[in-house]
Amino acid sequence: MTRPIIQAWADRQGRVWMDTGKLHVKTHEVIIELLNGEAKGSLSWVNSQFGPLEQLGVQKSQDAPPLNG
Question: Is the pLDDT of residue 68 over 80?
Fold first, then answer.
């Protein structure tokens, strides 16, 4: 069984940007958002403003217990 992987990117300052699951209306490009929600934009815009971006992947661990118990 494969675990879901969420696309993520790190910018030049080491901040993490996550895929929002949405596409830009005109360009159909992936929209990504800073993990703390402070900024959001298309992948190419974020890369031009905060890049170069390094692509990461976030994967749920089956071994980790839930935080609430």
Answer: no
